[in-house]
Protein 1
Amino acid sequence: MAVTLEHPESADTAASSEGLSSRAAAEAYVGGVCFKLGPPTLIGAEIEWLTVQTGPSAQGASPGAAPRPHPAALAAALGPYAPRSIAPDSPELALPGGSRVTAEPGGQIELSSAALPTAADLCERLARDTRLLRDLMATRSIRMISGAADAERPPERLLPLPRYRAMENSFDGIGPFGKLMMCNTAATQVSVDAGADAAEVAARWQAAHVMGPALVAAFACSPVLCGAPAGEWASQRMRTWLRLDNARTRPPAEDWSDPIAAYARWALDVPLLCVRRAESSADWTPPPCATFSDWLTGALDDEVGRRPDFADLDYHLTTLFPPVRASGHLEIRYLDAQPDEVWAVPVHAIDALLSTPRVVAEATELADPVAGRWLEAARHGLADPQMRAVAADLLDLAAAHAPTERAAAELDGAARRCRGGHTPTGTRA
């Protein structure tokens, strides 16, 4: 359930251009590719780690302050599993459990699972692939660090790809949080099916958003971020997203009664982050403030020299970073990366809370008192009494509807932790 949206490469270019000749056609396309309708049966997850280069080059450095590994070292460690972002000729094989490896701009390593019918199978396979990934990294003296924010190293972008250069250029004009997000943070992401029909999509979409602040608080574990402006935050990782680029990261999604149509309208009005050009071109930076709709309607003819096609629209959709992103399924993107021993807990929580329409409705009602309070959740976490109570209630509900005894026990423990005001690392909020 990776975020990449694909359009057949063999599609006729003229047909593609004709298909994007109007905003209405583009909105219809976005609605179709971003919300695949069908009974909710699958779940996926992405887990991410910071990385450090150990060995002689890191002598004298604390474990978290050791140098970042060079992309060539990551590629050598991963061999045939390396992503093409760091090894252009790699076959990009999946690990034995079905997970694929991604390298992020600051050297973070991410595993994206296969989409599976049960969270239990998902977590078992991810655990196996994680063990193999650690072994592979160790062959080049690279250590994976479970942390949602880099507490010791200033941000440094390692990947020279035009996409990341354009992102950095755009975000640097807003403030420091873009580079921090790209290079110094790590997340847990859970992906679920959108729903069988428009009504179920709307209910699941609303639940995923309304529950968001309480779950941000429940799993906040990044109080320190090197390079961030002064301020005490329970989730510095979420702080970077909230301070980054509101047009791209904070749509008014809780108010969308028809998320399929509303997401399509919103997507076309988000400013362009990158304009794909020839691979030999180093500059993918778009004209300032221009939206995809501007490009579609001819406002960028002089600057870009061509109109967008389906591939351009697909690419634009991968540059949208809302708390819940529609990519055929729903990507729940607002959770901190968790400590190694509890990384599966948020996966089980999302799985249980979205397990049936009745549970979806109950979870939405439970979370409603803190709906929309993203900023307070990221800043105060479980120190906010109302946020703490709602987070614990949601985890109790998840435990009651967990499909396995192990998941129920883990969720029950997380609920008790929340009620005691403790973070996933065991410290007091």
Note: The radius of gyration is 21 Å.
Protein 2
Amino acid sequence: MVNLQDWLTNSPNITTFRINKLKKFDITFLKTYLETQSQELGIKVIPNIYILREDCLVVEKWPNDLVVEKSGNEVIVDVLCAAAVLKGAHVFAPGVLGLPSNIKLEERVDVYADLDGQCKRGLKVKYEGRKLYIGTGFLKMQRYHLFENGAQPRGIAVRMLLPASNLPVINEEIYPEGHILLQNLPSIVVGWVINAKPNEYILDMCAAPGNKTTHLGEMSDNKALIYAIDKSDHKTNRIIKNLTAHGINCVKVFSYDSVKCYFDSQEEEVIQPPFPLNSFDKVLLDAPCSGLGQRPQLVNKMSPKILQSYKFVQRKLFNAAVKVLKVNGILVYSTCTIIEEENEMMVAWVLEKYPNLQLVPAEPLLGGPGLANLGLNDEQRIMVQRFGPENDVLRIAEDIYKNSIGFFIAKFIKTN
């Protein structure tokens, strides 16, 4: 059995991109890009690349024995930046905390994470606090770009050559905007479970930033009738920007509280929230959650009180989702956490609270089954899918589900 703490602190072994099937995609651009990187690394192979489905591209790691000699020039970044780098990103300027003044542009640098949050922004000398090596790259900005005269820097500060995770660093800009999207595999699977089709009325609750929303639009050939809502203009503006980039115009976006997105009438036309009862063929509830499936987690400061609060919000959202869902409609629930109360135990609560909801297989089943002794019987456990390190005798799943983030998906049908 894989140690959970080790699994959470390590990066996924794959990088996944969602391909916009409404636009042209040529995999040779990516291969050429990686061949250029392999030359820079001094090797003759590129990571394995394959299309899992027509809208999902998988890129594996560089060889595990590939190492790059450290330069001795240290750059300190915050833990959020560090986690992104370990998943295959460059170092962006806002994440830089410490940079010695004697390093020149384009020099090789070693990037370290400040694990305790004690490095003061603008540090000039070597940081002696607790730190973790996260990779090597080339400096693209100097101190005056980052720290001086009230600088509010943007852009790439360190172009990464090789993260410590050995995941390739892939810039989405090798393709035109909206052609591909960096997205975790389980998040893509959610779209497959919803299986959006033309002319279906679909509600995407808590939809920001809109990655799943765009996926639903693309799956339906831009012909579903999709309503995407989130609580603030700031969030809905992100959805709109995402939709525009992907060329999706079948989505109507509203700033609205999903908990209150219904009213007690069945005769009104579906125009805007609040919606009449029994309005939608399908509802996606990608719920606000504790996020404790994200990897790598270098630091976790979530208090038990905050952790316990999510299940109450999720229950309120379920209440709204059930009300606006049509009879025989599909409700898909997902979280990016490994916490049982938000996953298996939430499903058990829903089945008891709403007898008119029936659990059905969340196909296609790429994840492992739900955990035992959490309120679901064996038949129900194999209907949900849990992405994580757990082994289970009920289903021998492909190891791919262990190589992504922690995630959970359940699917229901409203029977009456």
Note: The chain has ten helices and 20 strands.
Protein 3
Amino acid sequence: MNLSPQRSEDPDVNLTPMIDVVFLLLLFFMVSTSFIRESSLKVDLPEATGEAMVEQAQPIDIVIQADGQFLINDEVLAVVNRDNLKTRLRSAAGDNQDPHIIISADADAQYQHIVTAMDTAQQMGYSKLTLATRQTRTENE
């Protein structure tokens, strides 16, 4: 009679189901993640280097005040909506097919007003948009 303990074989771990789950997770994240952030509004953001921009033809100035009032070339837009904005931009542009538009918005203005101005200009085919900024002062000045 042999009473010595029997050696049992080490259990095998089957990695195939785990690999399948990892590949399914990888596939899920690849499909659900957007790698390219596209925007329909293309804006030429100014650099705050302190140098003056080269003056081109007379730009169209859109000023958006904190209370939501729009001024186009210092003329108040009575009713703020896309149709009035398009009409005023078209008359301010005149014969220029792609005028330079400078949007100056108050720091407390609603973001929606800025997007409305940019989107309206983009829909009209105007691509030269600039957001006006002011250079921050350093402590040494």
Note: The chain has a mean pLDDT of 78.
Protein 4
Amino acid sequence: MTINSQTEPITISTHTILHQHRDGYWLIADNPEGNVFGHIKCEINLAGKLILQAIDGNRNINEVVKELCDSNALDETQSRPWVTAFVDNMIERGILRVGRHSNHIPLTVVGTGDDIYPSHVSIEVTNACNLRCSFCYLCAGPDKRDRLDYQEITDLLDDFKEHGVVAVSLTGGEFFLHPYAIEILAYACNRFPSVGLLTNGTVFPQAAIDLLKQHRSQVTVSISIDSARPDLHNRMRGGRTAYERSTRTIRTLASNGILVRMSSVIVEDNMWQLDELAQLAISLGARAFSFNFVEGFGRGEAVKKQQSANFDPGYSKYVSTVIEKYRRLIPIFKGEELSNTRRNCGAGTSSVSIGADGTVRPCPLFPTSNKLKNVRDDSLSSILETPLHRALESIPAPSEANGCSRDCDHFYECHNCYLRGLNVNANRPANAYCSWIRKNELQALVGLVRREPEPITISRKRPHDAN
């Protein structure tokens, strides 16, 4: 997108927060569509922050360039191309717009460059679940008993708010099996501009619907439906009437104006149903549809091993066709692209997960390890400063540029996800670790994802320091 007018002022058009961390800023902005498709998220550097601060609703692009260069002793001729390119990108994302408007929204900056406190935290309030999904990465189920109590959760939420967290996700197990689920949801909605609720949708109290109606602009509810065929969904989820209850919940929430994303886990049995699932999402009133392929963690490990080694050669084309077909009707998310400025996906830095037992994990899929610290023993800020988390912060994502070989059978599986990269090596002897592990000296971290973690010694030397 290009700026057609050199004279029209540029305006910040939506509430935008910059969350500072050691290596730059996480940008989170309200979607100008009224949060219809969630929040806009990206990562920018100091230059991006300074450009946004130079935009006051009155300056045009020429004046923004001049203000930036005068304030920072920069050469206008050299700076203009990259400043204009950044502004164009922000306009394309919907964060900026050209033209005089009365509602310029000042930029909000939180955090400091001294820490790596995340902008998003996911809390598993309980690992109890009324279903027993065949692929559950957490191995949740009716027999599980771990849970954080109400005071622990509200103390955590208060700490997040104090440190500038702008987005929280609440999940389980099944979130609504927590005895104080409604109170926890209300507490989060009253403190954060973005709240995600992940649930199987089979037990959704009317009180929760009434609460969410009051917070429509800030909440996204994600409900899992894995097949357009009730019998298959129920078998995969381990619940006799799961399909009927979950689809009824999506319809009810949608009819009340609440943003619902239907999500699906893809295995061999439903891999050719993406088109049907997208149509189902639309028919139920969901505003987004996301899918991911089964992960090899928890009970999903056995499911993944049972699948054929290779999908049909035409499957990738099928997936692309479905995405393109529904692009204008319903957004389909396959996962966020990795920022060019970030070493990895941000798991453990821009976002962390806290389990029902209090264990801090880099992301929800990450297995619990006795080497990961617990918020019941220490604050999240101090946990994130431990040598282990500092090492995770610096892991270069698996890619060809970072040592992966295209001849590797797991090249596409691991791409940009260091958790999958570690997991692929978990059952190998040290002398058979992949080239990515060896090049980046990550041998000490492989034990984190083993079922019975081995003793791990992490030095303060970062993995990439040897490159």
Note: The longest strand covers residues 259-266.
